[in-house]
Amino acid sequence: MSAVRPIPGAEHDGETSWQRELREQFPIVTAHPELAYLDSAATSQKPRAVLEAVQAYLTTSNANAGRGTYPWANRTTDLVEGTRERVKEFLRDPEPDRSAVHFTGGTTEGLRTVARDWLVPYLTDGDEILVPYADHRANLDPWLEARRLLAERGVDVRVRALPVQAVSGDYDHRRLGEVVGPRTRFVAATHVHHVYGGDMNVHRIRAAVGPDVPICLDAAQSVGHLPLGLDDPALDVDFVVFSGHKAMALPGTGAVWARNARGPAFRPAGWQGTPNTVGIVSLRAALDWLDAAGPDRIARWTAGLTTRLTDRLRHLDPYEVLGCPAGLAADSALPAAQRRHGIVTFRHRGIPSDDLGFVLYSHGFMVRADSLCQAGADEKDGAVRVSLHVYNTVEEIDRLLAVLASLT
What we know:
Elements: H1 13-23, H2 27-30, E1 36-37, H3 48-60, H4 71-90, E2 100-104, H5 107-122, E3 128-131, H6 141-152, E4 158-161, H7 176-179, E5 184-190, H8 202-209, E6 215-218, E7 239-243, E8 254-258, H9 277-293, H10 295-313, E9 319-321, E10 343-348, H11 353-362, E11 365-366, E12 368-370, E13 383-387, H12 394-406
Parallel strand pairs: 1-11, 3-4, 3-5, 5-6, 6-7
Antiparallel strand pairs: 2-8, 7-8, 9-10, 10-13, 12-13
Helix pairs in contact: 3-9, 4-9, 5-6, 10-12
InterPro entries: Aminotrans_V_dom (IPR000192), Aminotrans_V_PyrdxlP_BS (IPR020578), PyrdxlP-dep_Trfase (IPR015424), PyrdxlP-dep_Trfase_major (IPR015421), PyrdxlP-dep_Trfase_small (IPR015422)
Cofactor: pyridoxal 5'-phosphate
EC number: 2.8.1.7, 4.4.1.16
C-alpha cells in the first residue's frame, strides 16, 4: 500500500489553524464532536454568522419586501435587491448591469423556471436541445417537461443526450460533434458532478456548440464549494443555477443568474408573490462568510481531503471508487482542476450500500447511501457518497478509512 500523503497545506500550521478557526464557527459541528458530517453535497452546515444574521433580521426588521413604505418594509426591500447584486459580485459577473438574478427555492426550482419560463417560448419547431441524461434528475426532468409542453402546442423539439464517458462520468467531448447540429439551440450542463465529483469542463461544450448557443449550468455542487468566476472565459455560460442551502445558507433558498446576452432576457413568468426574505438574508450572510473564508482555500482544503481518502481507498480491495480512476492517486498526473472536488462515491463489493451507510453511522459517520438522484439510476445502482466541506478534518478522514479498512 502506498503511503497516504498529507493533504496540500495540512503540514503548515497556518493552514490547519485557519481550518480549525473556521470549524469552530459551526455550532452543530462543535456540539457533536463524536459525529462526522460527510454529506455536504446534500446540504451544508451553517456558520454562526448566518444564524446570527437570520436572528437579527427576524428580531429587528422582519417585514414583506416591496409591499410597504414603512422602515422595516423598506429595509427588507433593500436587502432583497441588494442581495441580487451580492450574488452577481460573488459570481464575479463581468456585466452586472445587463444580467439578472431571480431567487428560487433551490436548484431544482431554478432549472424548472428556466425551462418553463425562458426555454419554452424561445424554441421553435425543429429545434434541438442537448441535456445530461447521466447527471442529477433535477437537470434532466425540466427539459423533458419543456419538450412535452411544446408538443402540446404542436411544436416538435428534439432532445439529444450529451455524450458521456462510461468510466469517468465526464462528458465525452470527443463525441460532442456527433450531437451538435445547425438546429442546436440550447445546452443544459453540470459544473461539478454530484456523484463523481469531477469538473465537467463546460468550456469544451462551448467550443463544440459555438458562440451563439445558450448554456445553462447546474452549479449546485460548485457555488460555495470552489471559486466560480463568470469573468473567466472558460465559464461562458448564460445561466447559473444554484441552491443556497448547499452554500451555507438556509434551506428553501436558491438563485438563477442570467447573463442576458444570448436570446431574450430572462424574466420569470407570472406574479412572483412574497420572496423568501429569511432565506435571502441567510444567503447574503453566507456569501459574505464564504468570501471572507476564501473559496480558493476552501477548495484546496476539501480537494486535499478528497485526495487523502481516494488515494488509500483505491488500495482497499472490496471497494470500487466511482468516477475517473486516473484521479485516485495522490501523485496523479491530472491537473488540479480535473481532480475530484470534495465528493467521493464508492461501493463495497460485498455489502449493499444502504447497509454500509447504516454501519458507518454506527461509527459516527453521516454519509449518503442510495442511488443519489442520478438520472437513470435505481436501487441496484446504490452507492455511498462522502462529500466534504471546510469543517471536515484530516482526523475524520483517517478515522473513516480505518473503519472502511476493518470491513474488508
